[in-house]
Amino acid sequence: MGGGLFAFSYALLFFLFLFGPLIIMVITAFNSSAFPRVVPWECFTTDWFGVLVRNERLMSGLWTSLAIGIAVVAIAVPFGLAGALALADIGPRLRAGLYAVLITPILIPGVVLGISTIVFWSFVGRGVGASYDTVFYNGFFLTLLGQVAFIASYAMLVLNARLQRFDPTLTEAALDLGATPGQAFRKILLPFMKPALGSAAFITFLASFENYNTTVFTILSGNTFTTALASKVRLGTDPSLSALAVIIIAVTLIGAMVSEAHTRRQELLRSGKAGQSRLYANPLSRLLTHPGAILVLLVGVTGFIAWSASRVDADFCRAAILQEKQQVQERLMQEQRNRIQQQAPAQPAMPSPSNNPSPFGGAFNPNSLAPPAQPAPPAAPPPSNNPSPFGGAFNPNSLAPKQ
């Protein structure tokens, strides 16, 4: 029992570690918070999907990445098939050397590949006298060549693994029966390589779509989806990126279910047990288990869920959340003011006001430059009958007796 509990706990922790970030991103895509978070939960909304679609830089980068990915698949898969066929046809001594040459681009850092692609093709452009508006300085062209240089090795590895199981006597028998090499290749080898070709195309497309290290140099002034996404993360993220994760997860799950249904159907048809299976007992069950029908059903269910979620109006909830935040902010400000008033010391008595309110003593008062007023002259003494300045001391009449 202890071993079973340990195994269950280990498996639970493993799956939480594996799928925990995905679950968190899915939840944050439907939270109205401006920052991706699970708690505190605010309002359920699907507006972030609209924000994602209205981002012109991301959408233009998405279309550029899709175009580059399709072009990379169209070039890298044939190159990889040619490399796998060359490895199968040459001797064991040369095979090791050729394998090392074909596998080397994977071992080179993407930064080195991106810089070397720019340097090489700009050198070629200058050598032929090409101007800056030609393909030698075009970001789409340089990105395509830079990605094919190493993604073709991925395709070669996938196709070479499948080719190891091929019996070469089948093509030899076809040639002996009069088939041309082209007919033997189209009718015998290609049908055998068909599953590997599909896997190689899928892997090369994903490797091109998600590549950043090489693309950030070769795209020049343009943008792919990964470079635009990286610049958005540097400038500040929002839940629209979580909405993008939800879309990718939904597309991946639908593709996996359809692929599994197709694989099981092909196994039943090859084994001849399709007639014995209950799923093929009547035409309706055969139709419902067809991969195309499953794809239509899953897309329809997903579309209905998305339409139902988009009908939810979060404006009333946002208004209530905003009002609650304002109330909390006012309460905190009031508490802060009360705390400041309680901690403030007693204010000293203010000095008596003066006629000069300036703290600089009126030094900058324009009236202070006027000359000081002169004091008033003393009042003149009353006139007397004696004009002498000696007070009449030498006046002969001063000696007469007063009457």
Automatic annotation (TrEMBL):
Residues 357-371 have a biased composition (Low complexity). SUPFAM superfamilies: MetI-like (SSF161098). It is a multi-pass membrane protein. Keywords: Cell membrane, Membrane, Transmembrane, Transmembrane helix, Transport. It is found in: Cell membrane. Its main location: membrane. GO terms for cellular component: plasma membrane. Residues 332-403 are annotated as: Disordered. The keyword Transmembrane helix applies. Residues 372-386 have a biased composition (Pro residues). GO terms for biological process: transmembrane transport. It holds the Pfam family BPD_transp_1. Signal peptide: none annotated. The chain crosses the membrane at residues 7-30, 62-87, 99-123, 135-159, 240-258, 287-307. Residues 62-259 form the ABC transmembrane type-1 domain. Belongs to the binding-protein-dependent transport system permease family. CysTW subfamily. This is ABC transporter permease. It comes from Bosea vaviloviae.
